[in-house]
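Hi L., both proteins are below.
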Amino acid sequence: MSNEWQYNTLKWLSRMTCKLSYSTILRIGATIGPMYSLFGKKQKERGIKNIMLGLSMNKQEATALIERLFKNMGRAAMEILYMPNLTKEFIYEHIEMRGTEHLDKALAEKRGVVILTAHVGNWEWMGAALAAHGYPSTTIVKKQPNAQFTRLMNEYREMVGLEVFARGGSEMIRAVKAMKQKKLLGFLADQDGGFQGVPVMFLGQDSSAVLGPATFAQKFKAPVVPVFTSRKENGHIVHILPPLYYEDTGNEEEDIYRLTEETVRVTEAFIREHPDEWLWFQHRWNTKIPEIVDIEHKLKVREAVHAKK
C-alpha cells in the first residue's frame, strides 16, 4: 500500500501553516511541543538522565529544562512546515548572522569548508540562512524512518538552496566533489560514532565520536568552521565561530584524534550555553567504549594526545 497520503497530508499541513503569521506558529508550537512528552515518556526519561549527568543538575532542574526543550521542539516543528515562506527577505528579517568574517576567511582559502554543526536550535533554518546569504552549501543528511517525511524534508532543503546528499548512496563521492568545488560541506557531528568512532568524553559521559569532519579536513587540508544556531525572540541567531584546523605532525592517528576532540569540545561548549535547544534524548551514547573497534589502540592514541598537551 502506498504511503503517498502521508506526503500529501504533510504538504497540506504545510500549506495551512504557511497561511499563518510567524508569531502565530511560534505560539502554536510552544503549546503543542510539551504534548510530545505524553507520547515519548522513554525519551523524556532518557533526556532527564542525560541532563543530570551532563550538566550536574538535580532531577527537578533537569525536568524543567527538558520541558523548555519540548517547547522549542514544537516551535521548530512548526517552522519546518513554514519553510516554503523562507524568502530571502524573511530570512534577512528573522535570522541574524554572527561571525560571517570567519566563514569568509575560510572560503578564501579555496579548499572547501567543513561545516561542523549539531542538533541544536533549528539547524534546518541555519542551512537556509547560509544559502540565502550566498554561501554554496551542501549537507549530508540521514534518512528518516518515514520515507515520506524524508521526501518532504529534502524537497524543502533544496527549495531553500541546499544541495542534499542522503546517506546510503553515493554520498561520499558527491561530498568529495563538493569539497573539490570549494563548497561548504555540513556535518551534523553530535551523533553517536558507532563501532568505528573514537573514544571522547562528551557531556559527562564516555562516548564514541564521529570522525567525518576531521577526516575531510585532513584529506582536503580544509578548515572546519563550527556553525550553530540558537533561538531569539521572533527568530534565530546563526553563530559562526573561528575555524579549527588539522595539524599535520606526522602522526595521522593522533592528528585526527586531536581535531576530533576539538570539534567535540566546541560542540559541547555551545550546548552548555544553550542547553534547552539540544536533543538530550537522542541515542548519543549508544556505543559503549569496549564496543569500539580496536579500542585498546585508540585509547593509547588518546593517552598520547593528552600527554602532549
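That was the first. Here is the second:
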Amino acid sequence: MGKVRQPQQDRSIKTRAAIMNAAFALFAEKGIHGTNSKEIVKKAGVSIGSFYAYFKNKKTLLLEMLEDYLDRHYTAIWGEVNSSPPEKWGEEEVRSLVRHVFRAYDISPEFHRQTHALRYSDPDINEVYERDRERQVAQLESLIITFKDLLHIKDARASALIIHNSVENAAHTAKFIGHRMEEERLINALTNMIYQFIKPR
C-alpha cells in the first residue's frame, strides 16, 4: 500500500475529520474491536478509498485519534497553568490544577476507558500513553525545579512522578471505576496532600 497522504486542501481536511469523528462515535457505541473500517466510512459518508488514502488501517486511525485525544487532554490540564507565573502559586493554584485533571477526563471518557484498557495488551497504544505520561511528569518536574530555592525536595523527578500518579489514579478511579465519595472531597484531599508536600518551608 502506498504512503498515506496528509490532507492539504479544505475538502480533504474535512473528509479526514469526518472519518475520525465517525470513528469516535462508533468506538463509543460499539467498542474499538467491535467497529470495522466499512462501518466507519459509512457513518462518515465517505468511500473506503478515502479511508485508505489517509489511514493505512483501523489501527493507524486509532493511534492518531489517541494522539489527538491526549493532546487535548494535556491542554485541558496545562493550558491555563502555563500562563500563570509559577512564583505566585499557592494552595488555590494546586487545587485548580487538580480540578483541571479531573475535568480533562470528561473530554471523551469512553474513548479514554477503552484505549487505556488496551495499553496493557497493545505495545503501540502503551507507547503513546507513556509518551503522554512523560510530558506530564516533565511539566510537573519543571514546576518543582522552578521552586528549588524555596522547597526542600531533593528529587524533583521522583516527586513529580509521585504527584502525577496520585492525581491520575484518583481521577481515573473517580471517573471510570466509580467511587461513592464526592469528587470535590477527593480534589480537596489531593490538594492538601500535594500542597503540604511542596509548600515552601
